[in-house]
Write a structure and sequence with these properties.
Layout: E1 6-10, H1 14-26, E2 33-37, H2 40-49, E3 54-57, E4 60-61, E5 64-65, H3 67-76, E6 82-86, H4 91-99, E7 104-107, H5 113-152, E8 156-163, E9 169-175, H6 196-199, H7 202-218, E10 222-230, E11 234-246, E12 252-260, H8 262-314, H9 320-347, E13 355-358, H10 359-370, E14 378-384, E15 390-393, H11 395-413, E16 418-427, E17 446-453, H12 460-464, H13 483-493, E18 497-503, E19 507-518, H14 528-537, H15 539-548
Parallel strand pairs: 1-2, 1-3, 3-6, 6-7, 14-16
Antiparallel strand pairs: 4-5, 8-9, 8-12, 10-11, 11-12, 13-15, 15-19, 16-17, 17-19, 18-19
Helix pairs in contact: 1-5, 2-3, 8-9, 9-13, 10-11, 10-14, 10-15, 11-13, 14-15
Length: 565
């Protein structure tokens, strides 16, 4: 007991007060400030206003008797140690008093000064220890609440990993908000619970096992990014970090946290895909610039070759054999010139003649021209919307785009029975915006041309290279590999976008988006869809379409030749 302890004695018997005062004085080493009151009411007033280190309580007060006195004193100062000092030698009463909050129960006739002061000192120490324990327990509860709050809001789960001397791995999930399917003690909606190792994606399971066993052997921490397979085959990416600590019975133990990084991984994958597409676009642009420059040089060389050979041919003095050889030179030069024109179109160096064109009319005329190119085994479906709008473009180049795409579709179907579908629609400014493969989001109104086939299709690797010049999947001699690169150059040169979607063995769809410059009214373009349909199905309409575009079939014309993918 500290020397300056403040003790409150609640006693109404003057003789007992003197006796207790003498007991405190006998032990001069532990002087205490003793305050004496004779009623519970006085005691309550004192405890409410004055610091008190200990209460000595008699159970026979004028205004409080027995256990009631104990309860009232404890309620008035629950944090102050209470020692009952009474003349009642009642063991049952003593037990009840201790249960009500008393630290000790002393009988006046059986106690001396040493016993009294020892009880006072121990009572104060016990109360102090209890107070410290309560404070520590309170802090512990606060820390536990903070940890629980963090765990409940953690985007992942806490775990322990155990490896025994036989390299057997075992996981225990400590906290699983959002990952309840990993906790075998909980039931899931499907009634099935999985262990952590069972839930790891089969492709990642061996990698995780090897990392843990290696960490055990070198005595280190470990971390892994891996996939978990949740019920209904839902894949979740987590990044697990585990810190090693000593275990029991030869086990190695790691305490760890696994954070859900599914969204982050998905974003990284999208960014990587966009980066690849950006590099591809930059490569195509560089190839286009280079190809355009080379094509111009080749064109300058080819023109005099063709012209001078034709002049020699005009001379009738050559033999039949010489004429045949010279004609082959002219034919080869013309074919080379055709390839040069396609390279120029891809490089967007060749100037286009731009004018306002009715998108439906352009597509309808092109359909009328290309339908005879299809074998009877291919069914042609055409769906041209009304009042699609006006586009700013070069009529010849846009027709070339249609021919290239349809020829590719025909070759993809081959000798099999298949379907080729052509559609034209209006993507209004207020419609939902599609996000293209290159990450481009379209703005404004567009005419959307789609050419689909049920052919062999392409895998992702071929799709990524589809627009590269001279890339083809056809046999040698059956394609130059310029068809889609020219198409790409024409479409982007018109301020548009081209998208390809393909599934191996199911087919391919090319979608072309061309900006609309003017929207047609119904009166301005009556019956566009019906006219187009009849152009596909009747010979008279086909003849009308051909005669309307005589340049498509003029001798020596090079705009109608198509190349492969």
């Amino acid at each position: 007991m500290k020397n300056d302890s403040k003790v409150l004695l609640i006693e109404d018997n003057a003789g007992d007060v003197r006796l207790i005062r003498e007991m405190f004085r006998e032990n001069s080493r532990h002087e205490a400030e003793l305050t004496i009151v004779s009623t519970m009411r006085e005691a309550e007033g004192h405890l409410a206003t004055r610091q008190t280190d200990l209460i000595l309580l008699d159970l026979g007060l004028p205004d409080a008797q027995g256990l009631e006195a104990v309860r009232l004193a404890h309620e008035a100062a629950p944090h102050v140690p209470l020692v009952v000092l009474t003349g009642l030698d009642d063991e049952l009463l003593a037990v009840k008093a201790l249960k009500e909050g008393a630290q000790d129960y002393l009988v006046k006739g059986d106690i001396d000064s040493r016993g009294l002061l020892r009880s006072v000192r121990y009572s104060i120490e016990r109360k102090t220890a209890e107070k410290a324990l309560r404070a520590e327990s309170h802090e512990l509860h606060k820390k536990e609440a903070r940890i629980r709050s963090i765990a409940e809001n953690l985007p992942g789960f806490l775990f322990q990993c155990f490896v025994d001397e036989a390299d057997c791995i075992r996981f225990e999930v400590i906290w699983t908000p959002g990952f309840e399917f990993l906790d075998p003690m909980r039931s899931t909606s499907s009634g099935t619970a999985y262990s952590v190792l069972e839930s790891v994606h089969p492709s990642d399971r061996q990698k995780l096992t090897d990392a843990i066993i290696n960490a055990r052997r070198i005595g280190s921490n470990w971390e892994q990014t891996l996939r978990l397979v949740a019920p209904a085959d839902k894949e979740l990416w987590v990044h697990a970090t585990a810190l090693m600590r000593p275990g029991e019975a030869g086990d190695t133990v790691w305490d760890g946290v696994a954070l859900d990084v599914t969204d982050q991984i998905a974003m990284e994958m999208r960014n990587a895909e966009l980066h690849v597409k950006l590099r591809q676009a930059e490569k195509l642009e560089a190839i286009g610039t280079l190809a355009g420059g080379v094509a111009h040089e080749l064109n300058n060389l080819l023109q005099p070759i063709i012209m001078m050979t034709e002049l020699v041919l005009a001379n009738s003095l050559q033999s039949h054999r010489q004429v045949e050889l010279l004609q082959r030179v002219v034919d080869a030069g013309n074919k080379a010139a055709e390839i040069v024109q396609r390279i120029l179109a891809f490089g967007r160096i060749d100037e286009a003649t731009l004018q306002l064109l009715d998108a439906a009319t352009i597509v309808g005329e092109a359909v009328g021209f290309i339908s005879p190119l299809l074998p009877s085994s291919i069914t042609l479906n055409v769906d041209i919307g009304e009042n699609v709008g006006m586009i700013l473009g070069d009529k010849t180049q846009l027709t070339q785009v249609m021919i290239n795409l349809v020829t590719n579709a025909r070759d993809a179907i081959g000798a099999k029975v298949g379907t080729l579908s052509i559609s034209l629609s209006n993507l209004g400014a207020g419609c939902d915006r599609p996000v293209l493969r290159a990450g481009v989001i379209l703005r404004g109104a567009y005419a959307v041309l789609k050419v689909s086939d049920t052919g062999t299709g392409m895998d992702e690797a071929v799709v990524r290279r589809a627009f590269e010049p001279f890339f083809t999947t056809k046999e040698v001699g059956k394609g130059t590999g310029l068809g889609l690169s020219v198409t790409y150059g024409i479409v982007t040169g018109h301020g548009g976008q081209i998208q390809v979607d393909s599934i191996p063995d199911r087919g391919t769809t090319f979608s072309i988006y061309l900006p609309i410059k003017e929207v047609l009214s119904t009166a301005a373009n009556p019956g566009a869809a019906s006219n187009t349909a009849s152009a596909v199905n009747t010979e008279s309409s086909l003849s009308a379409a051909l005669s309307a575009r005589p340049e498509f079939v003029a001798p020596g014309s090079r705009t109608m030749h198509s190349s492969s993918r």
